[in-house]
Amino acid sequence: MARYSRLPGSVALITLHNPPVNALSAAVRQGIVDAVQRALKDPKVTSVVICGQNGKFCGGADIREFAGPMSGPPLVPMIHAIEAVDKPVAAAIEGVALGGGLELALGCHYRIAHSKAVLGLPEVTLGLLPGAGGSQRLPRLIGLTAALDLITTGQPLDSRRLSTLPCPCPPDVDSLLDKVMSKVRQRSRGALAPVACVQALRAAASLPYAQGMEKERELMATLFNSGQARALQYAFFSQRVVGKWSLPSGASWDNSTARTISKAAVIGLGTMGRGIVVALALTGISVVAVETQEKQLAEASRVVPAMLQREAGRRRLATPPGVISFSSNLQDVSEVELVIEAVFEDMSLKLQVFKHLASVCRPGTLLCSNTSGLDIDQLAAVTQSPGLVVGMHFFAPAHVMKLLEVVYGPRSSPEAVATAMQLGKRMGKVGVAVGNCPGFVGNRMLKPYLEQANFLLEEGATPQQVDEALEEFGFPMGVFRMSDLSGLDVGWRIRKEAGLTGPGVESTRTRQGRRYSPLPDQMCEAGRLGQKTGKGWYQYDGPGGRVARSDPWVDIFLETYRAEHGLVARSITPEEILERCLYALINEGFNILQDAVAAGPEDIDAIYVFGYGWPRHRGGPMFHAGQVGLGRILERLNHHHSHPDVPHLKPSTLLRRLVAAGSPPVQKWREFINKERVHSQL
Ligand SMILES: CC/C=C\C/C=C/C(=O)SCCNC(=O)CCNC(=O)[C@H](O)C(C)(C)COP(=O)(O)OP(=O)(O)OC[C@H]1O[C@@H](n2cnc3c(N)ncnc32)[C@H](O)[C@@H]1OP(=O)(O)O
What we know:
Elements: E1 2-6, E2 11-16, H1 26-41, E3 47-52, H2 75-84, E4 89-93, E5 96-98, H3 100-107, E6 110-113, E7 118-120, H4 134-142, H5 144-153, E8 157-158, H6 173-188, H7 192-206, H8 209-225, H9 227-241, E9 263-267, H10 271-282, E10 286-290, H11 294-315, E11 324-327, E12 338-341, H12 347-360, E13 366-369, H13 376-381, E14 389-394, E15 403-408, H14 414-426, E16 430-435, H15 442-459, H16 463-473, H17 479-486, H18 488-497, E17 510-511, E18 514-515, H19 519-525, H20 552-564, H21 574-594, H22 601-611, H23 621-628, H24 630-640, H25 653-660, H26 669-678
Parallel strand pairs: 2-3, 3-4, 4-6, 5-7, 9-10, 9-12, 10-11, 12-13, 13-14, 15-16
Antiparallel strand pairs: 1-2, 7-8, 14-15, 17-18
Helix pairs in contact: 2-3, 3-4, 4-5, 6-7, 7-8, 9-22, 10-11, 15-21, 16-21, 21-24
This protein binds ligand L2IWW6SD.
Ligand L2IWW6SD is lined by residues 20-21, 23, 59-64, 75-76, 96, 98-100, 122-123, 126, 128, 131-132.
């Protein structure tokens, strides 16, 4: 027979009981079948362990039964049924697991054996073969060669201990490891751990166990003491910290209730809108996709279902995607619970859409804008319920990129923020709640970074030099390669709207009282918009080309520009490139914390890691500042702040105060900022 018991907690224990060797008699088989059924039916049971009474797992089929007529449940289907159950089943092997006993263990999902256990398939010695699946499962577990040896001789084995075994390797192991190493180096962009993993496995393949262990210890010690491990562990926690959002009003994730959205609409089916439709539909939400331009609508109706299909297939979704209906009529959104406006980044157009939405949507509908930096309050002001308006800033491609900035204004209700954050979570995004200001967090910090990159070109650097320094740091793409990919006209349009460039604006290097580089505007004026035109800071094989090559035209363009403005090119080191670009960005991060636009450094770091390609093994810009040393950042900002007309390099008050307070670790900044605020020091 077999005894069934449920251990405290969730494990069911099935103990074979048939002294002296727990042979699989008809009664034992029946007992196993019944016990497995019980374990499956018991909702409290989440896993099953099979063991044998009296220190013996099982001596195999009951040899005595072979002589008579078969009775009781047959062994083969019984083992099949065990293998098929969806709760994990483990065999705990003590003493012997022989013949049908080992075959029973092979049908379990896991096997764990005592060091003195003896395992074997001795059927051959009884004129049989391992006919309860042993001849089929064992070679799949231990390979054909070892299985041949065990099954044809019937010789039992001691329970193996992995440290005593050689590492099975393909004949060309060195070339395999070299190939993997170069792939890993390329992919990891300076991360140490993936490289160390390959080194450890090389040791397993080439060294005796003890030496392999020594190598593993050495590698682990290096990783443990590296800043990268600390950065990655910090990134792990910051991802979780941002989920526990809080607003200056005191509303937070644990005192606000989110609405569950089942019907949503997206307005505008350009690149962003299409991605957002797919992201929503993948969560099972029914989406009304609205586009008023006929041509764009026709293209989206063709492209979006294919995108959805592809992504659903890639994610092997259990739930079928939500239904998408396409429309050219804004009136069709009247029944949805939430709208995401994703029209062109133009305030007057967005205002027009919001006014229209306010008139067609049911009262209580949440209205969200996928703006990358425009004023959410201004949009909220044209609706009847400003509390129901938030920004949902997606990143392209919206159905792939993890980051979502959820932008709240002073009038956004906790419910609206909670719903947007919850929706982001359903879409698999890392949502970060941020305050309303031009560019929010991500793009506000990007501005001084881009600005410094342009200044560096004026002063003598090439786009390649700048990009190489940033890529060496760990960004997947340097700033100029990235601009070419996203299109130089995006920033051009924003600068035109801000009155910084365009007809009637004088082509000087100081605008609106600040140092300004007209280089990117001039590139656009020359029709060099990036990959889409086949030419930007680099040249490509043609419009839409992806492979960037340096372009002598750009070198001549920069030389001419410098000559026109009386600038003398100087040699610029990668260190200066990093300091100027990254410290300007970090400094803006401190300003953002000071202004309470981000709740803490983790929010900024999550935004940069998940949305802007900041290398995860460097934690994020604010964490990096702590690693470099706040004093050092302050000193270098002071050094580079030689141009009083470059305010982004002027060290932020918060940075100064942190340095004055002895540079507390990044985990303490939130508390520090709150205290400073209470004492009106910020
Ligand atoms: C459709 C698929 C059908 C079949 C596939 C499966 C086939 C099989 O499983 S065939 C059986 C394979 N198993 C064996 O060949 C193991 C045989 N037994 C042993 O090798 C040893 O008994 C032992 C290592 C398990 C224990 O050794 P030890 O402690 O020295 O005790 P004994 O050998 O004296 O045995 C004690 C006692 O138990 C009886 N016994 C042992 N194994 C079986 C068995 N499989 N079936 C029935 N009875 C078994 C043994 O005869 C002794 O009995 P007595 O005390 O009455 O003599």
